[in-house]
């Protein structure tokens, strides 16, 4: 299949006819090719988006909400086809892909509902006859950059907020997983979003970002991805004085206290750790287990992880699919090799599965030395790094000691300890006896170097809005 650029409602190849292969990570086979945009293509997208902003922002808030809610309905109606393409290009099991499509629709619907609640605020000034109105306006054209691990859901957050606010959007979607964003975009266009208000482009990421971000037509930049890339894009936006929203990487600590049921908890955490083959920015990665329950927890965790059925996402019995690519497989393998060379104990996995596709075994490391890379770099794969602790203060120093600040988790039945540990963790998300997913009604944002700004929640539209006050006298 050919995955083309989507500009002004029409799919087209890039002007220089440059294409990139799209691979099925479960087989390594080519399933299609994706078009690369040139600067001329990006100029056409920018010109269309400027027109689309004028058209879409002129639609009433109520009608805009109706269109987005209809878009969400179409996505749900098409869930089987959309999920199958998502699985073929990304690898995750079909049930996870269907859940992603439905959650993406939820974000679009939520933003449609919030669009109907956009209001101006009128207030009386300090003197009689003096009135002040605080107005809310859409920011303008949005340049969005989205990742491959949740290709539809991560894009949906940005489409939802931007379109709900009345902005147009140009999305630089991932070349590895191009079909998902296109499928969502077509559902929105079919629902009634003006063709010029949505563009989806692909190409060399650095070339596209360096051209779109400083473009005069672009008013807002939003990005989800790694910390290093986020810093580069934020710097580009800063030079052009463009506001940004950044949801960046994570390396989530998981604190398991001695008053928990270690075996029951291991069963629960294995499912969370190896969901999406660990390719989740909120994935639990650094496990801190109190020594009283350390051995039973580790033993049970290894047993349940070893039982996971690894295979193609299209197989209904599969519980964990492949990594996205050969490059991801090599990156994970390098982390494991580094850890074991430094003295870590490999308790499970640590190797590729088969010679077809990019399957990597669920992996468990213990006795990890503090200088091992896996404790400092986001693994983004099926590695659980498990450490023992007895001193809570020292453990918290390690848990908070990285630049990451996206998500963290605490498991204890002691209410006072729940409160104390939750308050001590320097993260934008703290799950207490829970591994929460990001739902549209909840604002998500990272602390420290894991980004700034939020996506979702009651304020889902705010990152894509600007305000002004108008003062009336007489």
- Per DSSP E runs of 2 or more residues, the count of β-strands stands at 21
Number of helices: 13
CATH topology of the largest domain: Aldehyde Dehydrogenase, Chain A, domain 1
Report the principal-axis shape. globular
Helicity range of the residues?
A: 25-40%
**DSSP strand (E) fraction?**
15-25%
Widest β-sheet, arrangement of strands: 15-16-17-14-13-18-19
Radius of gyration: 23 Å
Give the helix/strand class. Answer: alpha/beta
Rounded mean pLDDT score: 97
* Tally of discrete structural domains: 2
Examine the secondary-structure arrangement and name the CATH architecture of the largest domain. 3-Layer(aba) Sandwich
Low-confidence stretches: none
Highest-level CATH class of the largest domain: Alpha Beta
Instruction: Report, as a whole number of angstroms, the end-to-end distance.
Output: 64 Å
Largest pleated sheet? 7 strands, mixed
| Fourth-level CATH superfamily of the largest domain | Aldehyde Dehydrogenase, Chain A, domain 1
């Amino acid at each position: 299949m050919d995955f083309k650029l989507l500009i002004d409602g029409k799919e087209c190849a890039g002007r220089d006819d440059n294409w990139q292969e799209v691979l099925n990570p479960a087989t390594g086979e080519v399933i299609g090719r994706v078009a690369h945009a040139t600067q001329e293509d990006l100029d056409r997208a920018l010109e269309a988006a400027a027109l689309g902003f004028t058209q879409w922002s002129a639609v009433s808030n109520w009608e805009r909400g109706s269109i987005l809610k209809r878009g969400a309905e179409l996505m749900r109606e098409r869930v089987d086809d959309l999920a199958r393409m998502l699985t073929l290009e990304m690898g995750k099991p079909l049930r996870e892909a269907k859940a992603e499509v439905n959650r993406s629709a939820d974000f679009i619907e939520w933003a449609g509902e919030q669009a109907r609640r956009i209001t101006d605020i009128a207030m009386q000034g300090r003197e009689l006859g003096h009135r002040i109105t605080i107005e809310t306006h859409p920011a303008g054209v949005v340049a969005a950059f989205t990742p491959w691990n949740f290709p539809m859901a991560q894009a949906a957050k940005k489409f939802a907020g931007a379109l709900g606010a009345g902005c147009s959007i140009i999305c630089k979607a991932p070349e590895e997983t191009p079909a998902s964003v296109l499928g969502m975009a077509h559902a929105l266009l079919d629902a009634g979003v003006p063709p010029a208000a949505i563009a989806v482009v692909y190409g060399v990421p650095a070339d596209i970002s360096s051209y779109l971000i400083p473009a005069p037509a672009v008013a807002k930049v939003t990005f989800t991805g790694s910390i290093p890339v986020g810093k580069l894009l934020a710097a580009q936006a800063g030079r052009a004085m463009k506001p940004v929203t950044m949801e960046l990487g994570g390396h989530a600590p998981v604190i398991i206290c001695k008053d928990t049921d270690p075996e029951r908890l291991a069963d629960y955490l294995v499912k969370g750790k190896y969901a999406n083959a660990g390719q989740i920015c909120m994935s639990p990665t650094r496990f801190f287990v109190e020594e009283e329950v350390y051995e039973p927890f580790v033993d049970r965790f290894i047993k349940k992880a070893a039982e996971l059925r690894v295979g193609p996402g299209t197989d209904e019995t599969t519980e964990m699919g492949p990594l996205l690519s050969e490059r991801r497989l090599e990156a994970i393998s390098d982390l494991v090799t580094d850890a074991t060379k430094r003295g870590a104990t490999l308790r499970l996995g640590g190797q590729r599965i088969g010679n077809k596709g990019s399957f990597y075994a669920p992996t468990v490391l213990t006795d990890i030395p503090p200088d091992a890379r896996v404790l400092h770099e986001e693994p983004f794969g099926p590695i659980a790094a498990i450490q023992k602790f007895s001193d809570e203060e020292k453990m918290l120093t390690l848990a908070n000691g990285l630049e990451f600040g996206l998500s963290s988790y605490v498991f204890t039945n002691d209410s006072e300890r729940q409160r104390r540990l939750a308050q001590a963790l320097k993260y934008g998300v703290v799950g207490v006896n829970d591994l929460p997913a990001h739902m549209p009604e909840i604002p998500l944002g990272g602390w420290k170097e894991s980004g700034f700004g939020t996506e979702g929640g009651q304020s889902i539209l705010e990152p894509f809005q600007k305000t002004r006050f108008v003062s009336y006298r007489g």
